[in-house]
Amino acid sequence: MELNFMAIVVAAIVPLVIGAVWYNPAVLGTAWMKASGMTEEKMKSGNIGIIFGITLVLSFMLAFSVNGMVIHQVAAQQLAFTNPDAESFKAFMEEFGNMHRSFGHGALHGAIGALFFVLPVLGINALFERKGWKYILINFGYWLVALTVMGAILCGWS
């Protein structure tokens, strides 16, 4: 089983596209700015090229990670990493092959990852930063949508 690099590239772009919509002032951008304590002045500071460049690199890292989370065969392949010709791996692939390789299954696992990984991480940080639930839910909602779409792309694109 080889990585689908095109799916990873497309999935890595998803957080940028969804973020452009989600954090747009016409959608949730204004509410997020209030909840986070962000100001227009602060938004204009920083090098936007560097910010988006690093965001894209981090999104690629995330896409590689989500790939292993949504495709069960990756875990089986990791078990056989030292011996890809192992009979147990061959038997697993013969029996299960591409089972559960669908857009819906990937979306489900992306959403589960957001719920059980992103929400606790964001929530813990936000609580110690003294941010409110509105801040947590706006950011969690973004990652829920982003990881759901990323999971769908990575698992369904064969």
UniProtKB/TrEMBL annotation:
InterPro entries: DUF1761
Superkingdom of origin: Bacteria
Coiled coil: none
Pfam families to which the protein is assigned, alphabetical: DUF1761
Name this protein carries in UniProt: DUF1761 domain-containing protein
Keywords of this entry: Membrane, Transmembrane, Transmembrane helix
Membrane spanning residue stretches: 6-27, 48-71, 107-128, 135-154
